[in-house]
Amino acid sequence: MLKVEEARERILAKVAPLEALELPVTEAHGCVLAEVVTAPEDLPSFASSAMDGFALRAEDTLRASTNPVSLTIVGEAAAGKPFPGRVAFGEAARIFTGAAIPEGADAIVKQEDVAVVGSSLAIGKPASPGEHIRPSGEDVKRGETVFGEGQRLRGMDVGVLAALGRQRVSVRPRPRVVVMSTGDELKEPGQPLLPGEIRDSNSFAIRGMARECGATPSAGGIVRDDPNALREKIQAYLPQADAFIVSGGVSVGDHDHVRSVLGQLGEVDFWQVAVKPGKPLAFGFIEGRPFFGLPGNPVSATVTFELFVRPALMRMCGRRTLFRPEVEARFEDTIRQAPGRETYLRARAWRDGEGWHARLAGGQGSNLVTSVAKANAFAVIPADRDALTPGDVIRLILLEPLEGW
């Protein structure tokens, strides 16, 4: 059996970012840039007023420190409605925040610093050139790099692209992931259960986790324990899949057919990893598409997705940071295990003035699905350890964003 790190390295060595394509900027949100974005023009493209006040020539106010200076108001400039003329000697133009600076003017005086009578104003102190003016290119100059290749586009970044006049942008697209569950015992939520039947929860969890890491999942449905049915289902979805994730049917029982079907349609890279929960794990390719066969137990499926599938999907998205953040924490429970496989415990972690702490989030059976919902971290027991006791320092994989702590 492969160790966890060995299996993950083999997957990431064979999974590549998807080919870039151009998308409208609104559809590119959350995707990774496949180009360097430079400013096609100065931003802002014109000098504007930072205040409501009057645009004038600073040199006309030099004598205002000794005697108030009177200027003639010759017009008005508002946002989107520039002053059509030129501010000449002895003149000023009423101006509002965001309006373009009129030709000839080089300073703004605030409206509260002047006295206005009819079409004249009086100013009692000199203005400085550039005062209260937002220069063109203050944000970014034409030709400057705004975003580098490999940057993930956030909502605010989409706004910047729009401000730059970009309608489309080259990005790594979201991987299209087809998710299926196998098992004669499975039923869709809402269907009545007969004796021995259970509801399919894996495909819902996997699609949710895939969506969280930037993929576009689709439901392949429940496939009965029949190799022909599984083979036909996979072949039907090939045109719309960049990757496949199938849960269940990867063990060695008479009704486990995922590994054999993968071998028939493509290639099996490896099977079985020294991890608990989640030992049976099939990875390979079907017509160039990564294929992940995850265990059927809900917790095992969740753990193996986090450890192996999530980094692969992040790589396909073009992301640079592939793994969850990790910290060291003090463990507050006692748990024993048979050494030999690296164990991932569902844990509840928190931080206080003394650092990070963690305790079990509930029962650790691989069928206990609610313990996953209660966990915000995985506590890792190395393969050569047989127990953890209160006070032991452990490696903790955080499953929630750090801003939530």
Structure notes:
This protein has 405 residues and is an alpha+beta fold. The protein folds into four domains: 4-18 and 174-317, 3-Layer(aba) Sandwich (Molybdenum Cofactor Biosythetic Enzyme, Chain A); 21-42 and 144-172, Alpha-Beta Complex (Molybdopterin biosynthesis moea protein, domain 2); 48-134, Molybdopterin biosynthesis moeA protein, domain 3 (Beta Complex), CATH 2.170.190.11; 326-404, Beta-clip, CATH 2.40.340.10. It has seven helices and 29 strands. It has helices at residues 4-14, 155-163, 202-212, 227-237, 258-265, 298-317, 370-374; strands at 21-24, 32-33, 37-38, 48-49, 53-56, 69-77, 91-95, 107-110, 114-117, 120-123, 133-134, 145-147, 168-172, 176-182, 186-187, 198-199, 216-223, 243-247, 267-271, 275-276, 282-286, 289-294, 326-331, 335-336, 342-352, 355-360, 377-381, 387-388, 393-398. The strands form eight sheets. A six-stranded mixed beta sheet has the order 8-5-7-6-10-9, with no helix packed on it. The chain has a six-stranded mixed beta sheet with strand order 17-14-18-22-21-19, sandwiched between helices. A five-stranded mixed β-barrel has the order 23-26-25-27-29. Strand 9 and strand 10 form a beta hairpin. Helix 1 runs parallel beside helix 6 (298-317), helix 3 packs parallel to helix 6 (298-317) and helix 4 crosses helix 5 (258-265). The radius of gyration is 32 Å and the shape is elongated.
Short description:
The protein has helices at residues 4-14, 155-163, 202-212, 227-237, 258-265, 298-317, 370-374, and strands spanning 21-24, 32-33, 37-38, 48-49, 53-56, 69-77, 91-95, 107-110, 114-117, 120-123, 133-134, 145-147, 168-172, 176-182, 186-187, 198-199, 216-223, 243-247, 267-271, 275-276, 282-286, 289-294, 326-331, 335-336, 342-352, 355-360, 377-381, 387-388, 393-398. It is of the alpha+beta class and 405 residues long. The strands form 8 sheets. Strands 8-5-7-6-10-9 form a 6-stranded mixed beta sheet, with no helix packed on it.
